Amino acid sequence: MPESVVGRALDDLTPVFSRFHTWRSLAAVDIRSKYRRTYLGPWWITASNGIFAFIIGTVSGRFLGSNMQEYLPFFITGMTIWGFVSSAIIESCTTLIQSGGLIRATNMPLVIYIMRMVQRNFIIFLHNSAVIPIVWLVYPWHVGFYALTALIGFFFLYVCVSSISLAVSIVCVRYRDVPPIVTALVQVLFFISPIIWQPSQLRGGHEVLLFNPIAHLLVITRDPILGKTVPLMSFGISALTALLCASVALAIYSRYKKRVVFWV
């Protein structure tokens, strides 16, 4: 990619940092407006997802014959993280399409729309995370300072989700048949990732864990919370995944950003 093109793309990505308060505030407004005039507000998200995860986790754990003290924290933590990943990627398919009026009427950088959507789903994720301490009270596990390394994992996860969302949103604006394909792929990733099943339950096909970047992102975010040590390989693969996703998103954004206004 020519240096000038990269430079222009990086200039367009500058609002991610310089206008941080803009897209963060817009995301917060989205959450407040959605739950206006309700008693619990956005905590309805936590209640509904917590009940769903607890019921599904309990049923799945019984069917799999798992130790519930180990399985339920594993499942609920994984589902909470996966909820952020899946909802952001699926919603990115229609983000720019639904913002077509604003894109045609204003000169706001496209990345602002994407970051607003990602941040909105991240806020929902933070609310859903309140379920994890409740599970800890029922099935306590050791939590030490090592759990803070999960922050590194969430940084890589946020970069991956934001980059994938940016790339997918532009592709979906141009090709309107892509969103159902993305939704199907997200569902496949759910079943081949260690969310409803534990790696120790595998009897074969361990390549699924080795070559699945979602599995490594789950390891570096979930395992520290559960008091487990994260292999350095998972940190390395996650860092490479974040770099690759950001590079692909940058290439697509720099090439097609000026055409989006004609596609929406």
Your description of this structure?
- The chain is mainly alpha-helical and 264 residues long.
- The chain has 14 helices and no strands.
- Helix 12 packs across helix 13.
- The longest helix is centred in the N-terminal third of the chain and has 31 residues, at 68-98.
- The radius of gyration is 19 Å and the shape is globular.
Name the shape in a single word: globular
Largest sheet: none
Oligomer kind = single chain
The share of residues in helices is over 70%
Q: Nearest-angstrom radius of gyration?
A: 19 Å
Overall pLDDT confidence: 86
Q: What is the H-and-E element order?
A: HHHHHHHHHHHHHH
Structural class: mainly alpha
Distance from first to last alpha carbon: 26 Å
What is the total domain count?
1
Uncertain residue segments: none
In a nutshell, what does this entry contain?
By secondary structure, the chain is mainly α. The protein has helices spanning 3-13, 15-18, 20-34, 43-64, 68-98, 100-105, 110-128, 131-138, 150-174, 178-192, 207-210, 213-225, 232-256, 260-263.
Entry keywords:
264 residues; mainly alpha
List the helices and strands and how they pair.
Elements (H helix, E strand, L loop, with lengths): L2 H11 L1 H4 L1 H15 L8 H22 L3 H31 L1 H6 L4 H19 L2 H8 L11 H25 L3 H15 L14 H4 L2 H13 L6 H25 L3 H4 L1
Helix pairs in contact: 1-13, 3-7, 4-5, 5-7, 5-8, 5-9, 5-10, 5-12, 7-9, 9-12, 9-13, 12-13
